[in-house]
Amino acid sequence: MAKYKLQADVKKCIGCHSCEIACKQEFHLPVGPMPIRVVKIGPRMINGGLRTDYVPVFCKHCEDAPCIRACPEHALYKRPDGIVMVNKEKCIGCQLCIDACPINAPQFNPELGKIELCNLCAHRIEKGEKPLCVLVCPARCLYFGETTEVNKKMQEIKVKDVFNFK
Amino acid sequence: MAEVKRSICMGCHCECGVLVTVENGKVTKIIGDPDHPQNEGAICVRGMSYPQLLYHPDRLRYPMERQPNGEWKRISWDEAMDRIANKFKELIEKYGPESLAFVFCDGDRDNIVFNVDWLTAIQSPHLLGTDAQYCIRPNWIADGLTFGQALTWEKGPDYRNSKCILIWGGNPLETHLGSKGQEILQAKYNKGAKLIVVDPRFTNLASKADIWLQVRPATDAALALGMLNVIINEELYDKEFVAEWTVGFDKLRERVQEYPPDKVAEITWVPEEKIKEAARMYATNKPASVHHRMGVTMNTNALQTCRAVDLLIAVTGNLDIPGGNLLPFPSPTGKVRSAYVEFPKLYAERLPKEVKQRRYGVKEFPFGYDKANPWNDSHPVLAFDSIPEGGIRGMFIVNDPVMGMQGSKQTAKDLEHLEFLVVMDFWMTPTASFANIVLPAATWLERDLVHELHYPSYVGVAPKVIDPVPECRDEREVSIELRKRLGLKSAYPINSVKEWNDFRLERLGVTFDEFYQKYGTVLKFQLEYQKYKKFRKFPGTPSGKVELYSKTLEENGFDPLPHYEEPPVGPISTPDLMQEYPFIFISGSRKVLYFHGYGRQLPWLRELQPDPEVEINPEAAEALGIKDGDWVWIETPQAKGERVKFKARLTWGIHPKVINADSHWWFPERKDDPHRACFESNVNVVVPRYPPYDPVFGCPIIRGAICKVTKVEG
């Protein structure tokens, strides 16, 4: 199991783009790639009322990652702690990983001709810091930590919500 | 070497704490400061994009003078200041001091103080805020009449402790995200606060609301009166508070009988049950806080609408209690030192009465611009109207009225009529493109600033993070320099920005530098509640109580109780005109990406929304053959012969009879046009600046006008 996990409490997200720009700052990204991106769904009618959902999309660091299998250059790899990383030296920009990913998490950087992928801010984790998107999120909808902790936290949040406990 | 410096963002008015990374003298990253008590690490895209602004190739980097052939020529600061001082002196000599005006709007309010200094020293009363008719004024004056002080703008609502939050005609998630917007979300998700949103649009905030009231634009007064009807008739009001602390309740009770929920439902398009539900939710979840903004004020019934919403706070007693709307905390730096509000007033008080009375708007709107005016400023449209007639001949502008003021083409013509125009900004804005001299301004990252605008009870200090990008200057230094070159004395012994900053913090017993060393960026004070109990009155109202019934309004010929008026155009007032112009027009809702006219140069922001957009309901669009992504024209009956172009965004989040277009769109990249295509997709081209006006503030119909939409062919 991956050691770390980043998860969004989708219910709280407002689609403000702060995570997207934080990521661009941290990784010096140009126009184009968004390793974390909020997808807006709606507004649409559900049970007679309008509803809009905002879903932050980023690499889920799959156990058996299809992007890794799809990469012909073995540029994508999994670290022992479960984080999927891109080796930029090896990446040829073929974008097969994007095709393989069920949520298009890998992003193409047109300036470098290479893939950008959320690595959970691995360089920050090393220093004991959280990913930058988590820190700046005004809706406080992103949770990061050890996978078991995040799973527990999210379960608490969701159960509270389902049973309408305050 | 990377260094992280603590500062306070001034990308809008929020004053969020930030951590700025500086590498080799250059800013490389800006994130929220987790230790700042207001934003607690949260930050919006505007703040994070400042590194792109600082080093943008299009940023103004030196003073320039426009040549007779229209080309810009680089000049030195010394030359620029000389030209400005000489020309201003010449205009004063030829036409008198009142031929000069200072024009401002958004941005760092410190610059107002300094410019008002030279303006009043030459004895010109023309301080022009181009948003004066609708921005904060109606809220402030309505709050002032009712409670004696302002408490519904950003600083008032104590969201963190609220059990119910009512947001009316505004969206803090777009406009004040880092500060107030995130507080609302935290109250809702961490503490289970109820959220009621009144907005014609299904915004992101509305999508999180417990109740969303999709009101017909410009009918908010009726809705508020309908809610008051429910609260009063169902006896959900705070009887004790009303008896002890308010005047005029019986008259209000009588008035609200004219607004039963079924009638209000017809006027506002909000279902009767929802009106009742919202009224009950607000009244029974105490403490509750209310915030109303420009959706409420940008129409011709602004004062009465603000008053109507204010009375919800009054009758429920949600006043100055934790989680309610707070009366202003006395400025910790001392009243006189609070630069944002009191200073313009004090300066203007130095003017002889007869000069002060010659401000534009005093004659036409004696209540809104004279008696009840806390800032002593002018009605900007009337002031601009004077230009072709030889009134104002020279202007110093620090904002962008061509984009921000209604009637953009008229404004541009007025600027062309001026004998001399100086514009100070970060960019060659549409307004700057009409200037004789443009001056490059320094950003908050390059200036030493004291903050206390939006903070409930703290003072902030933000030393500059980097030296200004060469030749960009602090606006305050420029106005001090201008005053000196004009040979004028200041009202205060302030000859540098440093002296000014120290002066503002004097009462705290520290200098600017000492403050930062001792406290960092923020010093917190204990917030006081129910201050009116301590004073045994509401200071600021004639009766010392909350005035449900306002005698002051009565004496000045206005309705002492709030009432609803049909907007002058619309389905009820002008059904015939609606045949040709079938949509109600919301012009200029804000988006988090762009602060007014700023930000469209920045690649990260522009990527997120490259084109000006108009929201149209899919059913309405289908009838017009408009698909999502089509370009469309918008035309209004008030600006015949003009049209503006937007990209259609089809959304169920807007009523089929309403459309909403983005504000402030210009195209900085269109360098083929000296004015950067500023009339092409600018809503203010089709929103006129002329009457019908709100009778108190002179606000035209900005949200709640009517329009037609046609597909751009070819």
UniProtKB/TrEMBL annotation, chain B:
Family annotation (Pfam families): Molybdop_Fe4S4, Molybdopterin, Molydop_binding
Record keywords, A-Z: Iron, Iron-sulfur, Metal-binding
Gene Ontology molecular-function annotations: acetylene hydratase activity; iron-sulfur cluster binding; metal ion binding; molybdopterin cofactor binding; oxidoreductase activity
Domain 4Fe-4S Mo/W bis-MGD-type: 2-58
InterPro entries: Asp_de-COase-like_dom_sf, MopB_CT_Acetylene-hydratase, MoPterin_dinucl-bd_dom, Mopterin_OxRdtase, Mopterin_OxRdtase_4Fe-4S_dom, Prok_Mopterin_Oxidored
Taxonomic superkingdom: Archaea
Record-linked SUPFAM superfamilies: ADC-like, Formate dehydrogenase/DMSO reductase, domains 1-3
Protein family (similarity comment): Belongs to the prokaryotic molybdopterin-containing oxidoreductase family.
Record's protein name: 4Fe-4S Mo/W bis-MGD-type domain-containing protein
Species assigned in the record: Hadarchaeum yellowstonense
